[in-house]
Design brief:
Length: 287
């Protein structure tokens, strides 16, 4: 693919030192014949399983250590800060481990945003989401199996709207939180940034993990922080109580809206991909 060209006043045209990858096809049957495709799906399954196992286990452990009736103390455990670190740290680790295999999505909202930006095909996006949800169910299932005495008693790590907050507030928290995450994913993996800031070594999983950490600090008191439909779905399936299911739609609709806004903002406002495509079409029509 040809390098992007920009016009600079007094200097004519200059080539940029980066290349955008070609848009992924919407349907790519050839993917289904490649082992690398199935290896990526397996990587998403395992990564999401590990993510849910470690993070939900951290949540349960914190609640056990702060339960006065079970011998805990009010200031015991890792606290909200520690829970946020668990989520952000695991995303950093797992994205680092799987980015070269599957892209390190570990989140249907991230996959959805990348699908809208034509970074992945529809077939890959669907199978990734299925693998992520199944991995989440298995990960929380392991937590329940290993912590059967505490799992149900302490809420199973399931997401639900906290008392005192309206549905609109919870939905807004999920939209904004997911926007921050998916916007960070786009920015951290942008080939333009890699070329422009080549003198500043930036490890892409690090800002993504920090985005997850910061969003958790802000929204744990409101929704328990979803921003990942697979995380919310896996916990709801295994916990299987009415409150998480009643609020469950928030943890799909909010993240998908946030991901869509982030994709549009990055691709059409910051990168002006739509304008470039339109300009290329006009130039071809005038030849």
């Amino acid at each position: 693919m040809a390098k992007d060209v920009e016009s600079v006043a007094g200097e004519g045209f200059q080539t940029r030192d980066y290349q955008d990858p070609p848009p992924a096809p919407l349907f790519d049957p050839e993917e289904l014949t490649k082992w690398s495709f199935y290896r990526a799906v397996i990587a998403e399954f395992v990564a999401t399983l590990l993510f849910l196992y470690i993070t939900v286990l951290t949540v349960i452990g914190y609640k056990v250590q702060t339960d006065n009736t079970a011998g805990g103390v009010d200031c015991g455990g890792v606290g909200i800060l520690g829970i946020a670190w668990a989520f952000g740290g695991m995303i950093f680790i797992l994205v680092y481990c799987t980015a070269g295999i599957s892209g390190g999505h570990i989140n249907p909202a991230v996959t959805f945003g990348l699908l809208l930006a034509r970074k992945v095909s529809l077939v890959r996006a669907i199978l990734y989401m299925v693998a992520q949800c199944l991995g989440a169910i298995c990960g929380v299932g392991f937590v329940k199996a290993f912590q059967s005495a505490y799992y149900v008693r302490y809420g199973g790590g399931a997401n639900s709207l906290a008392d005192g907050y309206s549905t609109g507030t919870g939905l807004a928290a999920e939209i904004i939180g997911t926007f921050v995450l998916v916007y960070t994913v786009f920015s951290a993996t942008d080939p333009k940034r890699s070329a422009r800031d080549s003198h500043v070594p930036v490890l892409a999983p690090l800002p993504i993990g920090f985005a997850v950490f910061m969003v958790h600090l802000a929204t744990i008191p409101i929704t328990g922080t979803g921003i990942n439909p697979a995380r919310s779905f896996g916990a709801a399936v295994i916990f299987n109580e009415s409150k998480p299911w009643d609020d469950h739609w928030i943890f799909w609709v909010g993240p998908f809206i946030g991901a869509a806004i982030a994709a549009v903002y990055h691709q059409f406002v910051l990168r002006a991909s739509g304008s470039k495509s339109l300009g290329s079409f006009r130039s071809a029509a005038n030849v």
